[in-house]
Specification:
Elements: H1 3-17, H2 24-40, H3 45-59, H4 62-65, H5 70-86, E1 101-106, H6 113-127, E2 132-136, H7 144-155, E3 158-159, H8 168-182, E4 186-190, H9 199-212, E5 216-222, H10 227-239, E6 244-248, H11 257-266, E7 270-274, E8 282-284, H12 287-294, H13 300-310, H14 313-324, H15 330-342, H16 345-351, H17 360-365, H18 370-381, H19 385-389, H20 396-406, H21 410-430, H22 438-451, H23 467-476
EC number: 3.6.5.4
Family: Belongs to the GTP-binding SRP family. SRP54 subfamily.
Pfam family, one: SRP_SPB
């Protein structure tokens, strides 16, 4: 979502950090470029003006000019103001109210309200153990109520039975009553949308609000709609009174201006973001982490959280035992590839690592894209169980059969086997040090070696860290805040950076320890 903005701001701010001292003219010139980059990213003009004025006020002054590294100080100020613009602290759906808590979903048609309703219900029922009831109030769109019913079956959440010819206000009354009688903790009302904002829509929303007395009114907005999303948020807030925002399609290739503008314009927090089409592709919105990603500082904490959610602990324990015995066959490799796919693939993982967001072209050139995982899994699945357990059996005739079965060729099979050998050697070297999560580190190590980045085998086991240790690591690699002295070590292109780029001697992954 923020790739273009990240590239523009990165280039501008890198120009500042390379200088020993900054004048007011230097800062003004840089802020002109920042302003242009934000406007091109579809950020509202009033928000851009306010942002650059605040940065200039803090950046131009004796404190900055006397600083040892004034350029880095300016980057810190930009970072802090980005966090402020996005909403200093992340907020989640507030359920602190007498049951059943009523959550009302509003928005225009096509923004993803019904799907998001299902995602929110699934998240709250699975993660917080809430008993949820969903109700569709959309009587205008054909099959809208049936769509929510099917989503309810898919995510194992109850939906209000459909009664023909009943109006939205009556359905809302019935949903709240049914939730009370059924002992539900939460009822989510999926309201109707329109293709544009009109008076009948707003009147209907006001009537539903008056009838159901919702504790939360969440505006679901498509993050790809740019400035229109900001006007939409203002209109709904003025007429209905929203309590928070949910941005959908944050995994798209839009310019990200809506996300940066809506919080600043409405003063309402962005509570959740949709990052994919699957029903579990919903994340909490963390302003600091988003600001870190925009400025190319990575997001280690989110990466760790995603790993904790996707890694099968039983499999991890079984594989750890195998690793302790120095065993690592192609079945294990297939499990690791599937695990990385669940975490968002190479692009998703690298996008959260400090300094790696700028290297997608180099990764693609090295053949390290998400399609690679699919090809490699197909190769392994085309082998017999005996071949997977003992790769030494794979001679020319067998490779020819596997290539035909997987739609690949002998060259790709040889690359896979070479990577497996490197990883198996690494596992043997780690020997008795095997712990849960170690296999994933080995997997990333093999990938990193192929990229010419050195190994990740020395990466600490993040899944074992307590929150304080994670916070410390996040600060070290440029995550949840910047140290007072300026930018952290390990950011490519900045003074003091320890991370090398692919193909350069001694390159370890930026912000992470190099393999010894």
């Amino acid at each position: 979502m923020f790739e273009n903005l990240q590239e523009r701001l990165g280039a501008i701010l890198n120009g500042l950090t390379g200088r020993g001292a900054l004048s007011e003219a230097d800062v003004s010139a840089a802020l002109r470029e920042v302003r242009r980059a934000l406007i091109e990213a579809d950020v509202a003009l009033d928000v851009v003006r306010s942002f650059t004025d605040r940065v200039r006020e803090k950046a131009v002054g004796a404190e900055v000019l006397k600083s040892v590294k004034p350029g880095q100080m300016v980057v810190k100020i930009v970072h802090d103001e980005l966090v402020e613009m996005l909403g200093a602290e992340g907020e989640t759906i507030d359920l602190n109210a007498p049951a059943p808590v009523v959550v009302m979903m509003v928005g225009l048609q096509g923004s993803g309200k019904t799907t998001t309703t299902g995602k929110v219900a699934k998240r709250l029922s699975e993660r917080q153990g809430k008993k949820v009831l969903m109700a569709s109030l959309d009587t205008r769109r054909p099959a809208a109520q049936e769509q929510l019913r099917q989503i309810g079956e898919q995510v194992s959440v109850a939906t209000l039975p459909i009664v023909a010819n009943q109006g939205p206000v009556d359905i809302a009354k019935r949903a709240v009553q049914a939730a009370k009688l059924g002992g539900h903790d939460l009822v989510i009302l999926d309201t109707a949308g329109r293709t544009h904002i009109d008076e009948p829509l707003m009147a209907e929303m006001a009537d539903i609000k008056r009838t159901s007395n919702p504790h939360e009114i969440l505006l679901v907005a498509d993050s790809l709609t740019g400035q229109d999303a900001v006007n939409l948020a203002k209109s709904f807030d003025e007429r209905v009174g929203i309590t928070g925002l949910v941005l959908t399609r944050m995994d798209g290739d839009g310019r990200g201006g809506a996300a940066l503008s809506m919080r600043a314009v409405t003063g309402k927090p962005i509570k959740l973001i949709g990052v994919g089409e699957k029903m579990d592709a919903l994340e909490e919105f963390h302003p600091k982490r988003i600001a870190d990603r925009i400025l190319g500082m990575g997001d280690i904490v989110s990466l760790v959280e995603k790993a904790a959610e996707t890694i099968d602990q039983e499999k991890a324990a079984a594989m750890a035992k195998k690793m302790q015995a120095g065993k690592f066959d192609l079945n294990d490799l297939a499990d690791q590839l599937a695990q990385m796919q669940k975490m968002g693939g190479m692009g998703g993982i690298m996008g959260m690592m400090p300094g790696m967001g700028k290297m997608k072209d180099q990764l693609s050139a090295a053949g390290l894209d998400d399609k690679m995982f699919g090809r490699q899994i197909a190769i392994i699945q085309s082998m017999t169980p005996k071949e997977r357990s003992n790769p030494d059996l794979l001679k020319h005739s067998r490779k020819k059969r596997i290539a035909a079965g997987s739609g690949t060729d002998a060259v790709q099979i040889n690359k896979l086997l070479k990577m497996h050998r490197q990883m198996a050697d690494m596992m043997k070297a780690m020997g008795g040090k095997g712990k849960k999560g170690g296999m994933m580190r080995g997997m990333m190590g093999g990938m990193a070696q192929k990229m010419g980045l050195g190994g990740m085998g020395g990466m600490p086991d993040l899944s074992k860290m307590d929150p304080k240790e994670l916070e410390a690591l996040q600060k070290q690699v440029g995550g949840a805040g910047l140290p007072q002295g300026g930018l952290p070590k390990g950011l490519p292109g900045l003074p003091g950076g320890g991370g090398g780029l692919p193909g350069l001697p001694g390159g370890g992954l930026p912000g992470l320890p190099k393999k010894k």
